[in-house]
Specification:
heterodimer; A: 343 residues; alpha/beta; Rossmann fold; 2 domains; 4-stranded parallel β-sheet; 14 helices; 9 strands; B: Urease, subunit C, domain 1; TIM Barrel; 16 helices; 20 strands; 19% strand
Chain lengths: 343, 479
């Protein structure tokens, strides 16, 4: 695997000879994946692979972000994504600040833009933001002097999750390419930023995407499938879980939240689990080597059976591990674009 | 004394009577149904003579030059006073109206507190008088006490105080029985109920028109049926009420969906006493603007009349989630916008109303889903409509009719259209069809923060607005 330097000194390389100049990364922010070209996605993948080599070391450390303030601004509870970004930033020697805000900015009484300006004054050069309102990172990016990385906004996008899912899938899918591979996204698609971002990256990678769930949780997606997403991939929407899983190469189960019952979208958790839970019996419809993913946190026994989650083909723990390398790559790339913009 | 394209004005200050000598302007007069070149003389604020020129005199004069029409009437504006003067005041709202070519503004009663007593109507009128603006303020009274939807407001007291209609705009009258009683009681008083049709059980938390854009952007969907369902309810109740109270009248405001327009079309064909308006933004803009597209509604339809895909077309040029575009009802699909335009052409739609809804930066410059809904559009209304005229989709005369005679009819005797009648006080707007202006904050009179059109150029800058014979607005320099 090539070691790729994304910015001067971005990645410590074992050998100066292996250093190759990558195409310049143009995006100062990472707000969504739909703006990434194929080559840019490849650059993230290659950079992540190089980062994974650093992560694999006994004392993972790169100087790529030394002296750079990375602030994690999380308006929603999150363990894995926040810790993943924090670990990624520390591996790159960044100065990390974590800000958790319970409740919305409105309840807190300070506007999102004011909070951003405060954090910028306190040295934030990269703002990693998680927010319950779709599009919130765009508001911040409009005014922030550094780089904004979207760590999940409402139902809209979770770019680093989609990139780490792609990275993880490509490492395990036979042949390393998703071209023509059947990938199923199963569950609460309506509310899922993970599903939306994966739709862009997986169809761009040529996958045959099947989005599956009860009809109430697919609202609007039939029209999206009809419009298409661009890329080579196909995009099918169905409530027929057997049809979706038949001969699948990979399946990604999505978290189902309790609130969906109160909102009248589903009769009961039990009924959901019975009809759409990813069980060993259902998985038997898929290819024998079908890969299993879940963005977490899981409701085991609801959208995914414990034996499937812990099964031989489950990549769920590896998703978490790869998340660090992919986020290191994203942090290095967006700051390289920001430093070029400053120059 | 200034002169632009044959115009001569002798009035220095807003509020003063106007003398005007216009020669060879393009006159559009829905009152008489005529359109063509004319000379107009105004003395001491009154129309002295209107001389229509025949074709031989009118060489080179056409409707792409200086156009004169009666002053516009806005059936729907929010002036935010009392209670939110940081967003707008009656004075700033009337100044914005004049800049937009409006000489009559119907103010919605959802101030804080709402206008549900005669004394508050008097206070609004006093504020308008104190502003010095000659633009007429018509007040709409609340339908229900405190706009709480529980019991009727003092409709008779409000009628005596001079309101032109009743509305809980911002909210529908949810309780159907109360809505029925409001129609009957307001009808008895000779006034319309103006309903904001929205089924709140379908729109809780909704952010964007239910459709491709909302799905892709992860915005909570606002279905068209939430409007059409409410319209259908209103019309069924109106049909029953009108049998017993034939003078009952319903005006449906800011209709935005094809289904609503169709329901009104059929109700009118059945003889129901219903009128409706659409806004300039629902005619010209669509939900794809939320994704960053900046093409007009009529450019977003394919040959089969279906909405085009802005992602596939590669037309996303602006940042997505501009909170200036958050509005109730939401910007709809290109098909809905097209249906609103067809309704305007065939007479289903009586009027274009702005739903001018200014907000402060604090309320607007926030996350899209947290932004207060509303577009402060009274100054950009004409430009958006002329954009449709320039596209060849809307005759100029029909556009002007929907800004003047249409709303005047909805208001009945309160607003006789006499602004271009010899011997009467001049009430008119002059704009330059051949010029364009750029929407920048400094060009706007509203206190409202932001406009989805900032930075864009629009046709037809207003040169002069005269309300009741007195100067309301004059462009500082010829455009």
């Amino acid at each position: 695997m090539n070691t790729v330097v994304t910015a001067p000194g971005a990645v410590a390389s074992d050998s100066a000879d292996s250093v190759a100049r990558p195409p310049a990364w143009p995006h100062r922010h990472l707000l969504d994946v739909d703006v990434l070209s194929r080559a840019q996605v490849e650059l993230v993948m290659d950079t992540a692979a190089a980062m994974a080599e650093i992560v694999a070391k006994r004392r993972p450390r790169s100087d790529a972000l030394r002296g750079t303030g990375v602030t994690n601004l999380f308006y929603e509870a999150s363990t894995r994504t926040r810790v993943s970004f924090e670990v990624a930033a520390r591996h790159l020697s960044a100065d990390v600040v974590n800000v958790s805000v319970s409740g919305s900015s409105i309840e807190k009484g300070e506007s999102l833009l004011d909070t951003m300006r405060t954090l910028e004054s306190l040295g934030a050069r990269v703002l990693v933001i998680r927010h319950a309102v779709s599009g919130a990172p765009y508001l911040v990016a409009r005014e922030f002097g550094g780089s904004v990385v979207n760590a999940g906004d409402g139902r809209h996008a979770h770019p680093t999750q989609a990139l780490l899912d792609l990275y993880t899938l490509r490492r395990h899918i036979p042949g390393g390419s998703l071209q023509g591979r059947k990938v199923v996204i199963l569950g609460d698609v309506l509310h899922s930023r993970v599903a939306r971002s994966n739709l862009w990256t997986l169809t761009a990678a040529g996958a045959d995407i099947w989005v599956c769930g009860p009809s109430t949780l697919l609202r609007g997606f039939e029209a999206w499938a009809a419009a298409g997403v661009g890329g080579d991939g196909r995009f099918t929407v169905t409530s027929d879980v057997d049809a979706a899983l038949r001969d699948a190469d990979a399946v990604m189960a999505l978290r189902l939240q309790q609130e969906r019952m109160a909102a009248g979208l589903l009769p009961s958790l039990h009924e959901y689990a019975a009809r759409y839970g990813l069980t060993r019996e259902r998985l038997a419809l898929a290819h024998e080597g079908c890969l299993v993913l879940h963005p977490g946190p899981m409701n085991e026994g609801v959208e995914i059976a414990p034996d499937v989650a812990a099964g031989r083909r489950s990549l769920i723990r590896e998703q978490v591990a790869n998340g660090v390398a992919v986020r290191m790559a994203v942090l290095a790339l967006v700051t390289s674009a920001a430093s070029r913009a400053d120059a | 004394m200034s002169a632009v394209a044959g115009r001569a004005v002798a009035a220095a200050e807003v509020g003063h009577e106007v003398d005007l000598d216009l020669s060879g302007a393009w006159l559009v007069d829905p009152g008489s149904g005529r359109e063509g070149p004319a000379d107009i003389v105004v003395r001491d604020g009154r129309i002295e003579t209107i001389t229509w020129l025949d074709a031989t005199d009118a060489s080179g004069i056409d409707d792409i030059g200086v156009v004169v029409t009666p002053g516009f009437i806005d059936l729907h504006a929010h002036l935010r006073e009392p209670g939110n003067e940081a967003a707008e005041t009656i004075a700033s709202g009337l100044a914005a109206a004049a800049h937009g070519g409006f000489t009559t503004v119907c103010a919605m009663p959802n101030s804080t507190p709402p206008i549900d007593r005669a004394a508050m109507v008097d206070a609004a009128r006093a504020a308008a008088a104190a502003s010095g603006s000659p633009v007429r303020l018509f007040q709409v009274g609340a339908v229900t006490a405190g706009r709480a939807g529980e019991q009727l407001a003092v409709l008779g007291e409000l009628a005596d105080a001079g309101v032109v209609g009743f509305s809980d705009d911002g909210s529908p009258v949810q309780r159907a029985e109360l809505f029925r009683n409001a129609l009957a009681y307001a009808g008895m008083l000779g006034l319309p109920v103006i309903d904001h049709p929205e089924d709140l059980t379908q729109t809780s938390g909704a952010e964007a028109n239910d459709g491709l854009v909302a799905t892709v952007l992860g915005l909570r969907g606002w279905p068209a049926s939430a409007e059409a369902g409410a319209v259908a309810r209103d019309l069924e109740i109106l049909a029953e009420v009108a049998r017993e109270v034939p003078v009952a009248r319903l005006h449906l405001t800011h209709l935005s969906t094809a289904a609503s327009i169709d329901l009104v079309r059929r109700a009118k064909a059945a003889g129901l006493p219903v009128t409706c308006d659409v806004t300039p933004h629902h005619l010209a803009l669509t939900d794809e603007w939320l994704a960053g597209a900046r093409r007009w509604a009529w450019e977003a339809l394919d040959d089969a009349g279906l909405p085009r895909d802005p992602w596939r077309d590669g037309v996303l040029e602006a940042d997505p989630y501009d909170s200036a575009l958050r509005v109730n009802p939401p910007l709809r699909s290109a098909v809905d916008a097209g249906a609103c335009l067809v309704g305007l052409l065939d007479g289903t739609v009586d009027a274009i109303a702005t739903d001018h809804a200014p907000h402060t930066q604090v309320d607007k410059d926030v996350e899209f889903g947290a932004a207060r809904p509303g577009i402060a559009g009274i100054e950009t209304a004409l430009g958006l409509i002329l954009q449709a005229v320039d596209a060849g989709l809307l005759p100029l005369a029909r556009a002007i009719e929907a800004l003047t005679r249409g709303p005047a009819r909805v208001l009945g005797t309160a607003a006789p259209l006499t602004g271009l009648v010899e011997g009467e006080p001049a009430d008119l707007v002059i704009f330059d069809r051949g010029a364009r202006w750029t929407v920048v904050p400094d060009a706007l009179r509203t206190r409202g923060w932001g406009s989805p059109l900032l930075g864009r150029s629009l046709p037809g800058p207003v040169l002069l607005t005269v309300a009741g014979g007195r100067l309301a607005y004059e462009a500082s320099e010829p455009a």
